[in-house]
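New to this. Please check this protein:
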Amino acid sequence: MSEEHTHHAQNSYSADSNPSAHTLSVFPKLLTAFLTVLIAYGADQGTKYLVETTMTLEEKIPVIPGLLRWYYILNSGAAFSLGTSYTLVFTLIMVAAVLICLWCLVRARSTLWIFSLALLLGGVLGNLTDRLLRPPGFGIGHVVDFISIGNFAIFNVADSCICIAMALIVFQNFRSVRLDGTYEYSQKKNPHNTDQESHETNV
């Protein structure tokens, strides 16, 4: 095998074995991230405002009997009213989550990664705003929850955004897609790497 042909085969294999997911350049990336955060955050804070101004605390409004209702409560815990005794701890976790999301967004180029991280950021910011600005005080404010599904849980739009974002992030990791849009293939997933190296050595 000639050196030129070997070099061409290596380049062809490299291109085929390292495909990229759909990626965005800088401006579309910033626009996608900004709009996603804005919509998620706005929807969360807007619905909370409507609940506070049109309902009384612990009021219940049936939407789909036996399945869905609006149930206005104030939650001092995490999503789905968990850990109500650790309000300040959850606030600190949210601050850390915001910083991590921003760090990852700066490095992300994959379209789905950008959307997922921005959706997560919008949801976290929605609940963090409640923690920081609502009574009983800074950092320990209670979050407005109002979506009640059966006997499962009571949550809000921010919680929904966080859950959807986490599901998408798990999906991206399952597909082995890096933040930059390339696929993370191991030697086990690409046994041809070893075969090619052996073949080149023999040649």
Notes: The longest strand covers residues 68-75.
